[in-house]
Amino acid sequence: MKRISGLYAITPDTDDTAALLEKVEAALSGGARLLQYRNKTASAALRLTQGRALLALCWKFQAPLIINDHLDLALALDAPGLHVGGEDGSASEARRQLGPDKILGVSCYGKLDNAHHAVEAGATYVAFGGFYPSQVKPGNARNPVSLLSEAKRTLKVPVVAIGGITVVNAPALIDAGADSIAVISALFTEPDIRGAARNFSKLFRRRP
Questions:
Q1: Active site includes 40?
Q2: In angstroms, rounded to a whole number, what is the distance separating the alpha carbons of residues 162 and 129?
Q3: 156 is catalytic
Q4: pLDDT at 141
Q5: 15, 36, 89, 149: which has the highest count of C-beta atoms within 10 A?
């Protein structure tokens, strides 16, 4: 199974599949290690079309494609993984249907108890957030960076940080223990997506 580490790119909502693929290819070529396909506005048919195209692109870069929320899509694509939120169904049921070898990520927001339950249910990694003001979810609660340090002390799975992350504030999250940082806006709204991905990826080289 691919290690959960480094820059974790999350796709922006768009119906323009060609533009999406161009942006994702730039992020992957810049060093993104994982890709999450997240599209809250697409139809089921468009999600399937985009998912297939992204899966082929991710195989090219040997980066796992993780489907956000839609277990049915992950199964239809035989995608490497699935990410579920707090209202997206049971993590244990997702694990049962995915089988033992697929990646399963679970959003735990700011609650360590959620993370422990997620691991018991079969989560491969847990995600905490938000930490900073976010363009995607402006109303999200803010969590202390120390949450990541506490999670690393008590959990035996990789920890992902998400929520308003930029190249300026990411180092504090990485230093606190985040194995991976999940980014949407500060990556895909940049005029030079490849360069932005490269700058995020460099932050992980600071670790011993």
A1: no
A2: 5
A3: no
A4: 64
A5: 36
Distance separating alpha carbons of residues 205 and 208, to the nearest angstrom: 8
Residue 104 has phi, psi (to 5 degrees) of -130, 115
Q: Which of 137, 152, 194, 198 is catalytic?
A: 137
Q: pLDDT by residue (tens digit) across 77-90? A: 999 999 998 655 68
Q: What is the CATH number of the domain that holds 13?
A: 3.20.20.70
Closest of 199, 142, 149, 190 to residue 170, by C-alpha: 199
Q: pTM of the full predicted structure? A: 0.93
Alpha-carbon separation of residue 160 from 22, 23, 26, 126 (angstroms): 25, 22, 22, 6
Look up 107 and say whether it is catalytic.
Answer: yes
Average pLDDT along the chain: 93
Q: What is the largest CA-CA distance in the chain?
A: 45
Residue of 33, 38, 95, 102 marked catalytic:
38
Q: Is residue 1 part of a domain?
A: no
Q: Tell me: pLDDT of 136 over 70.
A: no
Tally of domains within the chain: 1
Domain interval for residue 137 = 6-206
Residue keyed to tokens 């957030």: 129
Residue 207 has pLDDT above 60, yes or no: no
Query: Do the beta carbons of residue 55 and residue 30 sit within 8 Å?
Result: no
pLDDT at 3: 81
- Spatial separation of the C-alpha atoms in residues 88 and 41, rounded to whole Å: 16
